[in-house]
Design brief:
CATH class: Alpha Beta
Radius of gyration: 18 Å
Strand content: 15-25%
Largest sheet: 6 strands, mixed
Structural class: alpha/beta
Order of helices and strands: EEEHEEHEHHHEHEHEEHHEE
Helix content: 25-40%
Number of strands: 12
């Protein structure tokens, strides 16, 4: 279990959080709500003693133990050497020996990126490479920050099809602004507002019209089986 007990900081206030193994969660919230900060706290990037996995404080775990338990995938590809090829970069993430880099590139339909330098990737390509690294890493809990940003509709659907199953990632925590993407996945929802949790529960409950009105005003609406921006 991934657990955060009454955590507070300059950005987050009194956050209590639990996520069971083999479960999936989506974190929603407006810009500046604290979503990425929460992700970094949960993954131990922001040092703290409040977050535990299986009763072990994440910030006290190092090396192999930590690698197996938690992986945070940022919204942007930032690495020590942007001139690494995609294959070289993914080789650094290949902790699950049962998976092959080429097969994951084929799964994501980006085999053509095999020898391309990371510095020359588009935003969408970089996002898919980061997802490939997450699959190859295969930690017990994977936090994906804005994984669909910069993706065209075809690639968004492909990523959706991969994430809706538990075939490749054990437990997924997904940060997104894409409400329809979140709605279609149907995972439990945690909604942040100004650093506090305003909703924590099922997708079905969150996407009721009353909640949409409370959290988004007239900015979105539900039309049949889709959540759309109300322009």
């Amino acid at each position: 279990m991934l657990k955060l007990n009454n955590y507070s900081s300059l950005i987050l206030q009194r956050i209590d959080f639990e996520m069971k193994s083999s479960s999936n969660l989506i974190i929603l919230g407006n810009n500046g709500a604290g979503k990425t900060t929460l992700a970094k706290v949960l993954s131990g990037i922001i040092d703290n003693t409040s977050c535990t996995i299986n009763n072990q404080i994440i910030s006290t775990l190092y090396g192999e133990k930590r690698r197996k338990l938690i992986n945070y995938i940022p919204a942007k590809l930032e690495i020590f050497d942007e001139y690494l090829s995609v294959f070289e970069f993914l080789s650094l993430s290949q902790f699950d020996s049962t998976l092959e880099i080429q097969s994951i590139l084929q799964l994501l339909e980006i085999s053509y990126l095999h020898d391309k330098s990371c510095i020359n990737l588009s935003g969408g390509e970089a996002g898919l490479v980061l997802l490939a690294s997450a699959i190859l890493h295969n930690a017990k809990f994977t936090i994906l920050d804005e994984i669909t940003s910069n993706l065209d509709p075809k690639k968004q659907k492909l990523v959706y099809q991969i994430l809706e199953t538990n075939e490749f990632l054990q437990s997924k925590c997904i940060i997104t602004h894409n409400l329809n993407f979140a709605f279609k996945l149907g995972f439990d929802i945690l909604y942040l507002e100004n650093g506090t949790i305003k909703f924590q529960g099922s997708s079905e409950s969150f996407f009721e019209n009353s909640n949409l009105l409370t959290f988004f005003g007239d900015g979105v609406k539900r039309i049949e089986n889709n959540i759309v921006v109300n322009l």
